[in-house]
Write a structure and sequence with these properties.
By secondary structure, the protein is mainly alpha-helical. The chain is built from eight helices and three strands, in the order βααβααβαααα. It is 68% helix and 6% strand. This is Transmembrane protein 199.
Length: 200
């Protein structure tokens, strides 16, 4: 925060010197000392805000023909350098631990859906076992379908001998029964597959 003016030009020095040399000016003793001290400093000299306020009040009270802003037109604010306190090493270490923990949590959150076994080129025995079980299930389903259709054909062919004496009629009736059983088996198979695919 600004604490004082820096006097950089001759305007202030000339006008304050002129004010101090006037014998009829009734400057307060303390203000006179502060102004003389300011003029006695090497450039750039600094003047505190309290001295500036006192000088302004004096100029206003005595009706002088120049104002404070005219005195300080070639001055600037003195901004002291901010000294940062040293950081607590325990606090710094704690912040580093917290940052590392948060980074690990973020990394785990990002990579939780990554399966390293799926990325490997050769695969694992578990993947091979799943594929074998899948193939076995498909083979068993097809074999079951064929056995059911053939058994339905054979049963209807053998059973139709009591109804028909002609072989052609027996074959046609066996084909019709085997087709109906095959369609029913396909319907059940499709419904089962839809149920398995619909599971989460």
């Amino acid at each position: 925060m600004a604490s004082a003016f820096i006097i950089v030009g001759d305007t202030f020095r000339n006008k304050v010197t002129e004010l101090l040399e006037k014998t009829d000016s009734c400057l307060p003793e303390r203000l006179r000392e502060e102004l003389e001290e300011t003029l006695g400093k090497p450039e750039p000299a600094m003047m505190s805000f309290s001295t500036a306020r006192t000088l302004k009040k004096y100029l206003q009270a005595n009706g002088h023909p120049f104002y404070l802003h005219e005195l300080l037109e070639d001055s600037s604010l003195h901004l002291p350098e901010i000294v940062k306190p040293p950081r607590n090493p325990e606090l710094v270490a704690r912040l580093e631990r917290i940052k590392a923990r948060l980074a690990n949590e973020e990394y785990s959150r990002i990579t939780r859906n990554v399966n390293t076994q799926a990325i490997s080129r050769n695969g694992t025995l578990a993947d091979f076992g799943r594929e074998v079980r899948s193939v076995k299930a498909v083979v068993a389903t097809v074999f079951n379908f064929l056995v059911t259709v053939v058994a339905a054909f054979a049963c209807s062919y053998m059973g139709s001998q009591y109804l028909f004496t002609d072989t052609g009629a027996r074959v046609i009736s066996a084909v019709i029964v085997a087709s109906v059983v095959g369609l029913a088996e396909l319907y059940v198979l499709v419904r089962t597959m839809e149920g398995e695919l619909g599971e989460p």
